[in-house]
Design goal:
alpha/beta, seven-stranded parallel sheet, two-stranded parallel ribbon, Rossmann fold, 12 helices, single chain, 9 strands
């Protein structure tokens, strides 16, 4: 049983390839870029290439995509060709190959404008039932690709699981206020409270989804670190997040101060992973409490897999205004 991983040269693709190879699983990685984790080089937009790589495949993890950082450097047509048409190619060839399960890596960016409440409103409590309001071509095409996946699950009987992952990239934030006010480690530790997940936990969720897809048939799940907040905290974290964090984790502010870190003053959203934990049996390890435990013991809080994959960037060039240009 061979697993196909698309986007094998990317952050998640490499993490999946490393994980599957470490388990001695049969796996085939494909990407448009050669890498130590890419077995076949080509584009998912090329139907003939997709047909070729699908030979002998029993399960598919589709992680290849154009991302938000590509919005300013790629045309809308590129997003349509890769994120929608490429996904369609994979789905059609997966059905033809009678694969047992198909896992599609989506993004919490599909929620778009639904993630930012109006001024004075509580932070958003984001579950799978929140209605997406896409903000850019990235969100539009990922949401459309989700729809195509659901169509194939219903019409062709292909077992499909969609995973809406929150942030797991290690690069600096594209927001200049965050980038200039917080170190990357500080900002990303803060984000584990509400909008980030370690790549090791993401990889684990994908492997569980592969296993569970035939029984689920079709499912859509948010993949983000377990938040310590409840829905009753939403108004307060929008006004004074540090106070809520200190109430939930006494001594956290002192630990942060010892490292020269600081908490975000306010949070605008909280991603809720309860459905993924319940239905996939997913148990993410790397959360904010884990960070604090590591700070107390002066040890690394990121997973070994996150450190192995490291920072890749999204472009072959660098940009003066930040890690990538923002349109």
């Amino acid at each position: 049983m061979t697993i196909l991983v698309t986007g094998s040269a990317g952050h998640l693709g490499e993490a999946l390839m490393r994980t599957l190879r470490a388990q001695s699983r049969w796996v085939r990685g494909i990407d448009i870029k050669p890498s130590a984790f890419t077995d076949m080089v080509g584009s998912i937009g090329d139907r003939a290439f997709v047909r070729q790589v699908m030979s002998g495949i029993s399960q598919v993890i589709h992680a290849a995509t154009l991302h938000k950082p590509h919005v300013a450097t790629h045309d809308n047509r590129d997003f349509l060709d890769i994120n929608i048409a490429g996904t369609l190619n994979l789905l059609e060839e997966a059905v033809a190959a009678d694969v047992a399960s198909f896992v599609f890596t989506s993004t919490t960016s599909t929620f778009g404008a639904a993630l930012t409440p109006a001024a004075g409103e509580p932070a958003a409590w984001v579950t799978e039932d929140v209605l997406p309001v896409a903000k850019n071509i990235y969100g539009v095409t990922k949401l459309a690709a989700e729809g195509v996946c659901e169509l194939f699950a219903r019409k062709s009987g292909l077992p499909v699981v969609i995973l809406r992952t929150s942030r797991f990239f290690p690069e600096n934030d594209d927001d200049p206020d965050i980038r200039n006010g917080y170190s990357p480690e500080n900002a990303q530790a803060n984000e584990l409270l509400h909008r980030r997940v370690d790549i090791s936990d993401v990889a684990g969720a994908h492997l569980l989804a592969l296993e569970k897809a035939p029984a689920i048939g079709f499912g859509r799940y948010i993949i983000s670190a377990t938040t310590p907040f409840s829905s009753g905290d939403l108004a307060e974290i929008r006004r004074d997040a540090p106070d809520v964090v200190e109430r939930l984790f006494p001594g956290a502010s002192a630990l942060y101060a010892s490292r020269g870190w600081k908490m975000f003053p306010a949070l605008d959203r909280v991603y809720v992973n309860a459905r993924a934990k319940r239905e996939l049996g997913w148990q993410p390890r790397y959360d904010f409490r884990f960070v604090l435990d590591c700070l107390r013991e002066n040890r690394e809080w990121r997973s070994p897999l996150a450190l192995d994959v490291g920072s890749k960037g999204y472009h072959d060039q660098t940009f003066v205004e930040g890690p990538y240009p923002v349109r």
